[in-house]
Amino acid sequence: MARLGDTHLAVAAIDFGTTYSGYAYSFRHEFIKDPLKIYTNQQWLDSESGLLTFKAPTSILFDKDGNFDSFGFLAEENYNTLVEDEKEDGWRFFRRFKMNLYREMNIGASKLAGRLDRDLKLKDEQGRTMSAMDIFSDAIRYLKDHCLEVLGNAVQGMKPDDVHWILTVPAIWTDAAKQFMREAASKAGIKDHQLDLALEPEAAAIYCKEIMVKARVEEKNSRGLSAFIPGEKFLLLDIGGGTVDITCHQVMNDSKLKEIHPPTGGPWGGTVVDEAYFSFLHDLVGQKTWDDFVKSNKSGKLDLERVFEMKKRNLKQSEFTFIKVGQSFLQTCSNKNKKYSSTVEVKKDKLKLVNGLMKEFFQFPMMAIVEHLESLFMKRPLRDITNILMVGGFSESDLMKDKIELSFPGKNVIRPVDANIAVLKGAVIFGHSPEAICERTSPRTYGICVSVPYDVELHPRKSYFVSDGCEMASDIFQVMVKAGQTVRMGKTKAEHVCRPAHAYDTVSTVELYESTNECPEYTSDPSCRQLGELEVEMPDTTKGKDRRIVVAIHFGYTELKFTATEEGTNHKAEAKFNCLR
Ligand SMILES: Nc1ncnc2c1ncn2[C@@H]1O[C@H](COP(=O)(O)OP(=O)(O)OP(=O)(O)O)[C@@H](O)[C@H]1O
Ligand SMILES: [Mg+2]
What we know:
about 30% strand; alpha+beta; six-stranded mixed sheet; binds magnesium ion; 13 helices; binds adenosine-5'-triphosphate; 32 strands
């Protein structure tokens, strides 16, 4: 089990976002004195705006042989240059690819739908494919190496083994998506025992707590202080580029945080605003003209996106927004849709939009978030939450903040400083003190598939089978933790004794299932799906069938954890869980 030992000199966190990614780190000796002494890289330069930013775009470029070329702003610039020089053939350029995992884990209704494919392929904008695992791992490797170089320059003699790594994942991700990220990190050279996953909104909650506590110590007047008084409950809203991730916590007497509802959320991040803008452009010029534009201007869409990003961030109170769209797009505008005659004008190299139209692009995600929050606040344990903490890049939008404040007038809406890097900084703090979240709520029921002696009164005929002369019932869901149950890190575990099916077996397999139903009876129930298999090694066959390994499944961490020991001894056994296909 990956645990941070005293030997680690530093914790480094990688926030792998849908739109932007970055890293931050802090040293153990400094953390003890000041948990907020966290270093971020401020070197990412956006040549479009000339700004130095804390995170770089999640864009990656591979050459014709599939070798990594560049990441971030540089990847975008290099790809644009290739396109301008008409040399991009065979190169592969991926951006915003994290949402592919979210889509993959949610498609289909089959029992195996939750199981991501390890060999998943992604297509770039030109339709060229590449292994998702390679794309993710090369992106993580780039950020890791960049961070190690900076760390190495900061502290002489710092070695990779001195660093404990944290990789952030959305709280609403499935166990399979988490495993996918862990394997990508391992492929990127981060050793399994040196890595923990942090849940993005949890990390942000930890960061918010730290800054509020510091404000209390320094007696600064902060509106947010009251949210962190023991007994208070707060909802953390992480509005990123791809997903909105929500957690609800209560502050305990020792200032630790207890999760009071499983994480929820949906695909309502800032990129939905970009999509609305692009469907407007599409509608403005018509399908054929748009298709021709995209085909003949391979970097055209990316350029339009980069300009829109700046406009979106600086939405003015004035009546109009001017968006520079460039000559190549303007040529397509000669025959614009009459529907927009009163709201859109072409002015030199810009589109002049009435602000009402601009604000419409924000409508869908804002409504989806408000509706989701309304449904959450109806739930019994969440009814008395008075504080809403807003973090993530899209929370920086005043339009979004105003919407939340207006929709929930009785609540205290807090947007801390550095809202867009709260996840990143919180992940570093989490790496030093993972016990900051002392309790979590199981999002689903977890259990294993077992066979029990057949009882004609209890079991359906279809589950009947005979084994070694005994009448048995198969596919029984043996519940280990229930959906909604409180689980504690290091405390909540369920055990199962594995025996080999045959005397010559060297591996015993346990099938893990999850269910949205609190108490499912059979693993074949529609609410259940197979999560994965746990393979327990039993290499020594000398005792034949008389071998027993106790497997413990530990709940309450950010991932499921497993340990295995030979029954009656302390001898550890190897147990490997796999929920990828
Ligand atoms: N001032 C602003 N107004 C509106 N949108 C903004 C503003 N600042 C950032 N954004 C948007 O926020 C999003 C980026 O937020 P963030 O960096 O938190 O996301 P991410 O970490 O990449 O995504 P995720 O957490 O969903 O994986 C982008 O869509 C960006 O356009
Ligand atoms: Mg994020």
